[in-house]
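Re: that chain you flagged

S.,

Sorry for the slow reply, it's been a week of failed gels. I finally had a moment to sit down with the sequence you sent. For the record, here it is as I used it:
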Amino acid sequence: CDMSSKYSSVSCYCPLYKGQLFIEGYMEDLLQQTIFEEVDFFILDCASPENEVDIIQRYLHYDNITYQRINEDPGIYPSWNLCVKETEGQLITNWNVDDRKPPWSLEVMRDCLTLNPNVDICYGNTIVSTEPNETWLGLKSKLLYPCNETDHWKDLLQNNNPHCMPMWRRSIHDRFGYFNEEYKTASDAEMWLRAAKKGAKLQKINDTVGIYYKNPDGISSPKNK
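Prediction finished late last night. Pasting the structure tokens below so you have them in one place:
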């Protein structure tokens, strides 16, 4: 089969709010992706009061980076659903502005789904960092987020194995719906659980796909729950 046509069908989205501290490193990480030219990147500015756009504009000469600003912040999961609906790739991934990725991250996840048509959602190891903007080459943290290789819904009930940066097929939204907008946090975990209970197949990649910044001001921080 023609792999090249499938390889180019990837959308990566980022709802943005108060990301000025992270946006420059984030944009540089986009460019470092080994399949950068084969991915459509969509940045949704959710009425951020900061000046991220001043930096983002430097990168908008790339045809595959799209920036859109909306007039108010609808919340994280309404933003996720909007991003999914505004993009077109048959493979989708989220990439939060305060997280970082090694150059191979998007490629290995794309290849997993392309080469395994029975797999609906794939994920890999993520390193947990307490330092903002910790780069891959300068990485000091050795702490891995505990994720198992399983697609049984009872395991997902105990732990959100895909964690913060999986890649999935757009078709799961046709089959299982979108992210529950009533949740303030963990709606992604609920989405994967819902999909697995109804027959979706998950697979773990034997590779590290990103650095998760345990942001004390993030939406999943205990103080914001």
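What I noticed first: The first strand starts at residue 10 and ends at 16.

Talk soon,
D.
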